[in-house]
């Protein structure tokens, strides 16, 4: 994260399994632009998630990446003074605008009832807004301005459906089709939020809703049972397994019972599942005899089917034709969406439609975020179009910052790694980059304090591999700087690090086996080693300039990161 980046208006949704964060990050120098008498700040809406069991990581992330960058007093202003300003909507832009609302009472914070406050308030929803309120207060000095969980979910969905085009889509037979939402014909609909457990809410309008049902067989069941049955360690691993599995190995099909034929009289084909996991009764096998892939596949099918069916039954109860599915369980996974859609289609005989949302996992957090808008005495009015644009400008998985060096034209590679230009005077094979341009070292340093928090890094381009390597290297270098109380001592430690051998892929000590391809010749190995040496040295130099202040004393906002482990790689 850029040190000039300014963060404001954080909202949290703390659920049984995951904590979701939505926050506004203003660009660059936070310069305000005046339009129609209103000040406007350019920036983007950021989304992040953490496992609730690793709440300490979330606290650290907020401390270093949000509070440390918060606009002075900004977070203190969710509930504010009398001067209510407007957010200006731009029609053609790549950045989003949020009214900073600094126009009123800057010196103190006021509650709507007029009481002065000197605390940091942030919007929080989900069960954790209650469970962890004391922890946030104690560790970060943040107080929760609690929003009801169902209210936030509905607020989030209504906001998305009304303001973000191409938000809702159907998924059937491998076809994704965006649904055009008619704002005058949106209600009523059924919202099915698949989190750890599942909530089913009939929505009749803005703030008009009723939780009509739910089921405890949800995403938590999939992950919990999945971990027990397959020894998987994470949701991603379980999904990956399920991708390669075949549910028919364990599920008992109608055909298994009916000798291979359909039971057409009641509309069941021979391939329909008669009983999830039913084959395990008579197969005479132990759990170990089944492939974990097949177990994961059956489990995913079972949970998705069941939710689809209960959703349909509830839609039927109230005559609802549209069912929107949200929650982090879905994760845009085709198999899950297909199973749910087929279940809804099958049971409703094509009458009801299952729809999915692009921002499925952040409904509650977005609802809480947009509720800053609902305060009668607030100074933040993130106009729908503004937040809409902010959303369009980032992906849900913004958690990890990727390299912008996606264009590989004319770039030499070694071991599959692009040898990107560097603003460097250090000797080596890197082409020289223009001094006023960002290079990969800038990116690695800028993104380090955000990227180091994530345990998964989806590689979007070969440059991302170099970014991963440099993130790891910064982690190593910071570890060496730990305990170096002056810049001079730190510099010595870094010089010593530079004297160490630099392994290349295939050699002992290379940190990410499989990240880069093995060198095909000694020349390629030498080229890559020399490039790594150059880029590491360059990174070291620039790291020293951020890890120590101008007076040579350590910058705790950097050195505190020495303790972290990037992508679970132990740093020595
Ligand atoms: N990276 C992940 N780690 C853990 N679970 C994940 C992950 N990605 C998706 N999931 C799935 O999403 C579910 C959690 O979804 P979500 O965050 O919407 O619910 P929650 O708010 O934690 O739960 P609840 O609303 O019931 O309190 C998990 O139970 C799991 O099935
Ligand atoms: C308890 C909540 C609302 C917490 O998010 C959720 O996990 C849920 O809807 N569980 C299902 C509870 C039930 O209706 O059986």
TrEMBL record:
PANTHER family according to UniProt: PANTOTHENATE KINASE, PANTOTHENATE KINASE 1
Q: Which InterPro entries match?
A: ARPC3, ARPC3_sf, ATPase_NBD, Type_II_PanK
Q: List the protein's name.
A: pantothenate kinase
Listed under GO cellular component are: Arp2/3 protein complex; cytosol; nucleus
Q: Which reaction does it catalyse?
A: (R)-pantothenate + ATP = (R)-4'-phosphopantothenate + ADP + H(+)
Question: What does the UniProt keyword field contain?
Answer: Actin-binding, ATP-binding, Coenzyme A biosynthesis, Cytoplasm, Cytoskeleton, Kinase, Nucleotide-binding, Transferase
What are the GO MF terms of this UniProt record?
actin binding; ATP binding; pantothenate kinase activity
NCBIfam families assigned to the protein according to its UniProt record, in alphabetical order: panK_eukar
Q: In which pathway does it act?
A: Cofactor biosynthesis; coenzyme A biosynthesis; CoA from (R)-pantothenate: step 1/5
Q: Which family does it belong to?
A: Belongs to the ARPC3 family.
Kindly give the Pfam families that the UniProt entry links to this protein: Fumble (PF03630), P21-Arc (PF04062)
Give the enzyme's EC designation.
2.7.1.33
Principal location class: cytoplasm
Q: Which domain of life is it from?
A: Eukaryota
Database matches in CDD domains: ASKHA_NBD_PanK-II_Pank4
Q: Name one GO biological process term.
A: Arp2/3 complex-mediated actin nucleation
Q: Where in the cell is it found?
A: Cytoplasm, Cytoskeleton
